[in-house]
Amino acid sequence: MIPLAFIPGIFWIAVKLAAVMAASYFINKLLSKANKSDAAGLDEFSMPSPQIGRHFPVIFGTPPRDAGLFLLWYGDLYVYDKEDDDVHLCYYYYYSQHYGVCHAGVSGVVQIWYGDVCMWPTFDDPTDYAADAQTAATVGGRGPFYLWGGDKGEGGYSGVTDICYGGSAQAQNSYLAGQLGAGNIGNFRGIVTLVMRNNYWGNSPYPKTVSVMTRANTLLTDGSAQWYAARAAIDTHSLNPAHILRQCLTDTIWGDGRSTALMGDSFQTVADDLYAESFGLNYRYYPSPGGLADFIDQVLLTIDGYIYEDHGTGKFEMGLCRGDYVVGDLDAFDESDFVIERFERPSPGDVPSRITLTYRDRSWPDQRPHAIYDDIALQARQGDKVIEEEIDMPGICSATLANTVVNRLGRAYSKMAAKLRLKCKQTMRGVHWGSVFAISYDDPDLSITQMAVRVVRINYGTIRDNTIEMDVVEDVYATSESVFGSPPSTQWTAPDQTSGQVKYDKVTVTAAFTAALSYELYSVSSPSVSPSASVSASPSSSVSASASEGTPSASISASPSGSISASVSSSASASPSTSVSSSAS
User: What is the DSSP letter of 123?
Assistant: First the structure.
């Protein structure tokens, strides 16, 4: 129990503390107002710059999310001064943005990201995807609002977004019309756009990047239904490569504009095969002059396929390089139809023994996962030098498919298939790019009994010269069935071992101090005669050289005074012995 005498003292202490706290509060409030900065204006926000001349991309399947959106307009700024007991904490910034995404024809916008966080359809869940054809995306709740530290950090995000798919009957967006005037904007048909209506973007004038993920596997660019819809979508997200290639050839907005009547029945056959293989691809293709051919080549390389024009029907046909044949059933040609101009087979030291294939992750576009194929046996033959080849295939977004493709490539390299260049007669005019046929070749230098080859390049010639020239490779699916004839007998002839006559003897005399280091002796023409020589130094001053019958030999002696002596004898000569003497000073 506190004595009564102490109560007045405690009371006055409490009063003083309260006064100090009140004074501190008012001082902090005054300081807060004194240090309060002005809110940022629209011209102070860091926004994406317009990209003049850049085309809207075309979407195939569900490629990785795109952070390169086209900012078409931003405005309608509202600033809220966030205070706590009249003390300024931060500014909340609300404003609108209008983004262009891609060409029309997408099935749906399936994710919206702000910074590195998935905001919609499920906050912070990159594995969830919205259903197709959603027209509004709403982000709310405490989690997104306080995502980056709330009032004491960079705030967060919340709001509503209109998703406009750019169909041929699309009307004006009501919000944009109210902000800019109905007479000042179009309907934005033909492109997919996002209208982000006065959303909360945090408390900083440096907003994070908006990115979206789109899916396109049920519609064409003009909004009509995708061709052969039953085989278009693969694993929900991806698009059948046969559909991609057909659309590249027939699309009249960004493609080659060919008539659909020129597409042969083989496109449907290939679509069935790729669907059975679960071979779906995902691309974001930016149209550009000359870029379509490169894009088509990229798709064909990924699926190991080919497209050619049938000279008989004028239609485009498509095929896949697969082992779906029997060598005995193939069209066969021999030396009466062609001449082999070149035959090459790579050596183990030239073949990659490690293949690294880079593909894509849908949710994290900056990452580059990879699949690796190692040929252990080939690496053992190469010793310490492992030959590696890196291949980038941006259309693959599946680890399973990446491993399938890299193993296919690795097995093809390990076959070390032969490469041939053929000059052909018109009997082979029915052959086209990608054709597989059997050849035999009876030639003294190269005897081929049976080999399946595939065309990788063909030139049908001209009116003046109708010779067909083509490059073919031994087909990797049938290398085990290649048969070669017996090699020709050797043309090596044993050399004549009979001793011949010595035609001449020659001794070159040099200064004494170099005599022991250099001399020339040319005295025997027969391969069986091998002159031997010995050099010694002695204090003599005379020089002599001789040749006589007997075993070939030569000797040279040199003295410091500058005299040299040399002698040569040969059993291959019937001439009398000869001696030469000379002095050098």
Answer: T
